[in-house]
Amino acid sequence: MTDLIFKLDGVPEDEAQEVRELLVDHDIAYYETTAGKWGTATAAIWLKDGRQLQQARELLDGYQRERLRRVRAEYAALQDAGKTESMLARGRRKPWQLIFYLAIIALIVYLSIFPFVNFASR
């Protein structure tokens, strides 16, 4: 019986490749499915042998803890070096994009509360 071990929706390609390599390095048989042409299926990595599920889970849990630690350290190093961009800096760099997004947000809020405000005035 096959078991879902790792969903690939929204996963960066480098992470997916590292998971594949981890499974291959530990001789864990797997296969991969894509989301399909219309995106209706599940893009994931599946185990071929359910008896390897516990081993694969332990390997992936350890890998994800290590990746989280590594990515946080990389982000902290970028922050210390001043290479991260704040929302305010992004707004200064692309003011028209910021104005557009704020206008869309205002429109959504207006359309959400308009029926209630209109009803109250009658």
In words, what does this structure look like?
The chain is mostly helical and 122 residues long. Helix content is 61%, strand content 11%. The protein folds into two domains: 3-80, Alpha-Beta Plaits (2-Layer Sandwich); 87-120. Strands 1-3-2 form a three-stranded antiparallel beta sheet, with helices on one face. It is flat, with a radius of gyration of 23 Å. The model has no long low-confidence stretch (mean pLDDT 92).
List keywords for this structure.
single chain; 122 residues; mainly alpha; Alpha-Beta Plaits; 2 domains; 3-stranded antiparallel β-sheet; 4 helices; 3 strands
Short description:
With 122 residues, the protein is mostly helical.
- Order of strands across the widest beta sheet? 1-3-2
- Sheet-strand content, in percent, reads 5-15%
Residue ranges: pLDDT <50 for 5 or more in a row? none
| Sheet/helix structural class | mainly alpha
Number of helices: 4
Instruction: Let me know the number of strands.
Output: 3
Q: Tell me the Rg in angstroms.
A: 23 Å
Number of domains: 2
According to CATH, the fold-level topology of the largest domain is: Alpha-Beta Plaits
Q: How do the helices and strands follow one another from N- to C-terminus?
A: EHEEHHH
Topology of helices and strands:
Blueprint: E1 3-7, H1 13-25, E2 30-33, E3 44-47, H2 53-80, H3 87-93, H4 95-120
Antiparallel strand pairs: 1-3, 2-3
